[in-house]
């Protein structure tokens, strides 16, 4: 399928969706409006997904997130987060009044602190098997179910909790690598959202009363795509595919909420919030400004090198910008802490306009 045909297919789906007139519940983070998201006081946060939410589950010997300069802003050293500092999980935890839950990996070290919940997210994963060997979302939910079965979590713990489910595109990256083309993407997108819907329903079936799932961010605006235009322009074709994914997700969430008779499932619209920040080079208050929001702070000297990479002699093969707070993206895929903060602000202001 060539680009024009692909775009035509996506636009047709988009038009059909608009004509259907379905209304979708979309939720944005807003600390002083949290009653619109939650009708109870959450006591725990359980996290499922990938590197946008991972706070240290990937192995130290394998993951970039454990290498310098990751974590230089917070906590001051590499700690397993795919950023210079805090990630989406940290901001959502703060929003609901909790500390970030510990990574599931720490259970291997005998740490079983479930006071604030648990983070099952592993960087690089998706709903299906991707290019990494870490647990996909189905297995992550298995871990959660096991905690319930072994009474590490009781019914009250689960029913008073919130779940965050993130999906940032690893399934699609893996598909393209394996197939060498985007041909067949529309049908694959359908299968990804279908499986995501199964996962959301399963988490609810285990007793979680409120589940926040992220819409896919504009993949065409990630530095790994914009590098082709010297970080000046987003890839419209990729973003059209993302729009199709998000429309199917909206339909799936609407159906799930209709089945449960309440707004159990909410969408955190990362697409709109990312685009708002990128367009305005920061949040609308003017407190943050990103000189070139498409350019990453930490990047390789050439495309074969990544943030944190070194040669056999330990010589750095990357550069880091002078001020991470002036950059929206940290590396080729992930926002900086300041970038996530701006996204958080964008979600707040959008909610205020409803």
TrEMBL record:
It comes from the Eukaryota. Residues 1-27 form the signal peptide. One of its GO terms (biological process) is lipid catabolic process. Keywords: Hydrolase, Lipid degradation, Lipid metabolism, Signal. Gene3D superfamilies: SGNH hydrolase. One of its GO terms (molecular function) is hydrolase activity, acting on ester bonds. PANTHER family: GDSL ESTERASE_LIPASE, OSJNBB0059K02.9 PROTEIN. Belongs to the 'GDSL' lipolytic enzyme family. This is GDSL esterase/lipase. It comes from Quercus rubra.
């Amino acid at each position: 399928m060539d680009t024009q045909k692909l775009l035509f297919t996506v636009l047709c789906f988009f038009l059909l969706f608009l004509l259907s007139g379905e209304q979708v519940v979309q939720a944005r983070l807003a600390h002083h409006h949290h009653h619109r998201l939650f009708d109870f006081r959450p006591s725990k946060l359980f996290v499922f997904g990938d590197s946008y939410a991972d706070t240290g589950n990937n192995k130290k010997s394998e993951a970039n997130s454990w290498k310098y300069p990751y974590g230089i802003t917070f906590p001051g050293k590499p700690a397993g987060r795919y950023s210079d500092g805090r990630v989406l999980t940290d901001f959502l935890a703060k929003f609901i009044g909790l500390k970030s839950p510990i990574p599931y990996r720490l259970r291997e070290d005998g740490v079983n602190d479930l006071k604030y919940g648990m983070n099952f997210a592993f960087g690089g994963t998706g709903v299906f098997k991707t290019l990494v060997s870490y647990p996909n979302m189905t297995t992550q939910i298995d871990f959660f179910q096991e905690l319930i079965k072994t009474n590490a979590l009781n019914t009250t713990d689960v029913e008073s909790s919130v779940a965050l489910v993130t999906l940032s595109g690893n399934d699609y990256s893996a598909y393209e690598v394996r197939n060498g083309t985007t041909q067949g993407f529309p049908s694959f997108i359908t299968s990804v959202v279908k499986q995501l819907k199964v996962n959301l329903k399963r988490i609810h079936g285990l007793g979680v009363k409120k589940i926040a799932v992220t819409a896919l961010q504009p993949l065409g605006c990630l530095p790994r795509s914009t590098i082709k235009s010297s970080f000046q322009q987003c890839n419209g074709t990729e973003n059209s595919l993302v729009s199709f994914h998000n429309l199917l997700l909206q339909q799936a969430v609407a159906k799930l909420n209709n089945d449960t008779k309440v707004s159990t499932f909410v969408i955190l619209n990362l697409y709109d919030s990312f685009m708002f920040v990128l367009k305005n080079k920061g949040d609308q208050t003017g407190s943050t400004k990103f000189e070139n929001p498409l350019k990453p702070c930490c990047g390789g000297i050439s495309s074969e090198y990544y943030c944190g990479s070194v040669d056999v002699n330990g010589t750095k093969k990357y550069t880091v910008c002078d001020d991470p707070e002036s950059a929206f993206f940290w590396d080729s895929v992930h926002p900086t802490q300041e970038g996530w903060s701006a996204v958080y602000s964008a979600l707040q202001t959008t909610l205020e306009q409803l």
